[in-house]
C-alpha cells in the first residue's frame, strides 16, 4: 500500500536521524555529567541516581530544610529536549491540584542543566509492579481483575482531569504511571500520572499533528500522519494499558517483536506492529470478564470516531464496579478549584517558567516555585545580603507564596557552587 510505503520511507529517515544523532558530541561536558549538579544548592542535596535516558537523567534529592524526598529531572541546556520540557512544566503546573498526577514543585537552572523538581514516587512505576507480581506469582498473566481495575480507575480519573483542563497527554504507558505508598491500603499503592513531555494544549491547537508516543501504545490515527484528536489517542493508549495489566502481554506484539533486532531498534518494532495496530488486530483476552473484554474492545477501536469516549468509560459497568466514592466526585471538586486557583496560578507563573526555559542556552540562572496550593504550609522567605528590609523589601530566595523570581549566579563554575554562589541580588541582573 502507498500509505505503508510512505511510512517505511519515514522510518528509514528517522533511523538515519538517530544514527546521525549518535555521532554528535554530547550536549553536556563529560566532566559535568559525572558530578553532582546539586552541589552547593541551597535547597536540595543529592541522595542517589534514579534513572537516565537519551534526553537527561533523574536523581533523588532531599529538601535541606524539610527532609522531604524530591525527584529532580535534569535536561542538558541547549538540547532538543528543552522545548519539550517547557511544555511539560506548563502542563504539569496546570494540573498541580490533582492527587493522582505527580506534583510539580520547582524549575531552576544549574550551569549545565534545566532541572525540574517533582514529587517522588516511592513505589516505582506500574511496569515494575507488574513485573514483580509475575515473579512473585510465578505466572505470565497480569494482575487480578479487581487489582487491575483499582489502578485503571485512578489512571482514567487523572487523565479525565487532564482532558477537562484541555490537555492531551499523548504518552500514556505503564512506565508513566508512578506509584506511591497508600496509608489506607498497604498492599495496593496509589497511582499518579507523570511525564507531560508529549502533552498537547488544545487551546494552542485543537488537533495534533506530531506522530509521538511509545510504539506499543500508539493509536492508528497517529500513524496516518494527518491531524488527529490527542484525547482519542489517549483513550486508545489506555486500552493498551488495561490489556497489558490484565493479560501481562502487549496486544499488538508478534513473534517478530521478541527478536534481538527489534529489542535493539524500536523503529523495527513499530514496523512489525504497524499493520496490526492499524487493523486493531489482536487476540481478545479470554480469561477476563465479559465487561472487561467489552471495555478493552471499545477502547481499541481503530476508527477513532467510533471509539469509546472518556465520558462513556467513566460510566461503563466494569469501570464503575468498586469505584471508591472519593474518586467518583474527585474531578468535579478539583475542576471547581482549578477554575479559581490552579488555572490562575498557572497563568501567574507562566512568564517566569518561560523565562527559565528560554534561558536554557544561557548561563543566567533563574528559580521559580508554584504559588501556594490549598492545604500547603507557607514558608517564610529567606533574605539575601545585609540590605534585606523588614516587610520583605529586600531580595529573597524563592519560597511558596512568593511569586517573584530570584535570579541565581551566572558565573559559578560547574560543581563548585556554594550557597553564596547560587544566590545573588536580582537587582544586579540585566
Automatic annotation (TrEMBL):
<dbReference type="InterPro" id="IPR011009">
    <property type="entry name" value="Kinase-like_dom_sf"/>
</dbReference>
<keyword id="KW-0067">ATP-binding</keyword>
<protein>
    <recommendedName>
        <fullName>Protein kinase domain-containing protein</fullName>
    </recommendedName>
</protein>
<dbReference type="GO" id="GO:0005524">
    <property type="term" value="F:ATP binding"/>
</dbReference>
<dbReference type="GO" id="GO:0035556">
    <property type="term" value="P:intracellular signal transduction"/>
</dbReference>
<keyword id="KW-0547">Nucleotide-binding</keyword>
<keyword id="KW-0418">Kinase</keyword>
<dbReference type="Pfam" id="PF00069">
    <property type="entry name" value="Pkinase"/>
</dbReference>
<dbReference type="GO" id="GO:0004674">
    <property type="term" value="F:protein serine/threonine kinase activity"/>
</dbReference>
<keyword id="KW-0723">Serine/threonine-protein kinase</keyword>
<keyword id="KW-0808">Transferase</keyword>
<dbReference type="GO" id="GO:0005737">
    <property type="term" value="C:cytoplasm"/>
</dbReference>
<dbReference type="InterPro" id="IPR000719">
    <property type="entry name" value="Prot_kinase_dom"/>
</dbReference>
<feature type="region of interest" description="Disordered">
    <location>
        <begin position="372"/>
        <end position="430"/>
    </location>
</feature>
<feature type="domain" description="Protein kinase">
    <location>
        <begin position="44"/>
        <end position="319"/>
    </location>
</feature>
Amino acid at each position: 500500500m502507498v500509505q505503508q510505503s510512505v511510512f517505511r520511507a519515514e522510518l528509514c529517515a528517522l533511523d538515519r536521524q538517530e544514527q546521525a544523532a549518535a555521532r554528535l558530541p554530547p550536549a553536556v561536558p563529560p566532566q559535568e555529567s559525572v558530578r553532582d549538579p546539586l552541589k552547593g544548592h541551597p535547597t536540595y542535596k543529592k541522595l542517589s541516581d534514579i534513572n537516565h535516558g537519551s534526553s537527561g537523567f533523574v536523581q533523588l534529592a532531599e529538601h535541606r530544610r524539610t527532609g522531604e524526598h524530591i525527584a529532580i529531572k535534569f535536561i542538558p541546556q541547549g538540547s532538543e529536549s528543552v522545548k519539550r520540557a517547557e511544555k511539560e512544566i506548563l502542563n504539569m503546573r496546570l494540573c498541580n491540584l490533582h492527587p493522582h498526577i505527580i506534583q510539580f514543585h520547582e524549575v531552576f537552572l544549574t550551569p549545565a542543566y534545566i532541572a525540574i523538581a517533582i514529587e517522588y514516587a516511592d513505589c516505582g512505576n506500574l511496569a515494575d509492579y507488574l513485573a514483580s507480581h509475575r515473579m512473585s506469582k510465578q505466572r505470565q498473566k497480569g494482575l487480578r481483575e479487581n487489582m487491575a481495575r483499582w489502578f485503571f480507575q485512578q489512571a482514567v480519573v487523572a487523565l479525565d482531569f487532564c482532558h477537562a483542563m484541555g490537555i492531551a497527554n499523548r504518552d500514556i504507558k505503564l512506565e508513566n504511571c508512578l506509584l506511591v505508598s497508600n496509608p489506607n491500603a498497604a498492599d495496593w499503592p496509589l497511582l499518579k500520572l507523570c511525564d507531560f513531555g508529549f502533552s498537547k494544549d488544545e487551546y494552542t491547537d485543537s488537533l495534533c499533528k506530531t506522530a509521538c508516543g511509545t510504539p506499543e501504545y500508539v493509536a492508528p490515527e497517529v500513524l496516518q500522519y494527518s491531524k488527529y484528536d490527542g484525547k482519542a489517542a489517549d483513550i486508545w493508549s489506555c486500552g493498551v494499558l488495561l490489556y497489558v495489566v490484565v493479560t501481562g502481554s502487549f496486544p499488538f506484539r508478534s513473534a517478530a517483536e521478541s527478536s534481538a533486532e527489534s529489542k535493539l531498534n524500536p523503529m523495527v518494532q513499530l514496523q512489525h506492529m504497524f499493520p496490526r495496530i492499524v487493523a486493531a488486530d489482536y487476540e481478545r483476552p479470554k480469561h477476563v470478564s465479559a465487561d472487561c473484554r467489552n471495555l478493552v474492545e471499545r477502547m481499541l477501536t481503530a476508527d477513532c470516531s467510533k471509539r469509546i469516549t472518556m465520558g462513556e468509560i467513566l460510566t461503563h459497568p466494569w469501570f464503575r464496579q468498586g469505584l471508591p466514592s472519593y474518586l467518583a466526585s474527585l474531578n468535579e471538586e478539583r475542576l471547581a478549584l482549578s477554575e479559581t486557583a490552579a488555572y490562575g496560578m498557572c497563568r501567574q507563573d507562566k512568564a517566569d517558567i518561560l523565562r527559565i526555559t528560554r534561558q536554557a542556552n544561557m548561563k543566567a540562572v533563574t528559580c521559580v516555585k508554584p504559588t501556594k496550593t490549598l492545604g500547603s504550609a507557607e514558608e517564610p522567605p529567606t533574605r539575601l545580603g545585609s540590605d534585606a528590609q523588614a516587610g520583605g523589601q529586600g531580595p529573597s530566595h524563592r519560597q511558596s507564596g512568593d511569586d517573584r523570581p530570584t535570579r541565581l549566579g551566572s558565573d559559578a563554575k560547574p560543581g563548585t557552587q556554594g550557597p553564596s554562589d547560587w544566590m545573588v541580588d536580582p537587582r544586579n541582573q540585566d
